[in-house]
Amino acid sequence: MDVLAETSSRDVLLVAVGAFGQLGLEVAQRVGEQGYGVTVADPRWVRPVPEEIVALARLHRLVVIVEDGVRAGGVGDAVAKALRDADVDVPVRDLGVPVGWHAHGSRAQILADLGLTAQDVAREVTGWLTRIEAGEPAHSFVDANVLGRGSSAK
Prior knowledge:
The protein is α/β, with parallel strands linked by helices. It is built from five helices and five strands; from the N terminus they run ββαβαβαβαα. It has helices at residues 21-32, 51-58, 75-85, 107-113, 118-133, and strands spanning 2-5, 12-16, 38-42, 62-70, 92-97. The longest helix has 16 residues, at 118-133. Keywords: Thiamine pyrophosphate, Transferase.
């Protein structure tokens, strides 16, 4: 596992999978500008989930996985299960490609349509952290992709 960025304040662990390393760094900068601390980690491999990811998750208030693969059965699901198995009680959210048919286009356009830009991800992360600070239970969080935002069915 590679830690790409780390701050002294450990509000969110952002697991940026594969090609999303740079996006993770951009998100960290944007979220940091809102006063939150972000650790960005690239797991290098996703299964089995690296123990270092579990150890880092214990130190943070929120874990967010960003991947360009399908969310259902994806890296986010694997990380969430690894954290449950290790009794790490921290909210986990994943952003990725929802199951379904998506419009063709350039990678940048498809990611923008799916809400997987640095701006979109930073907005989601900041919103989740705000809810944590407000004392909302983790189960009240709703992923944007579940609501259909970011899908080709806009």
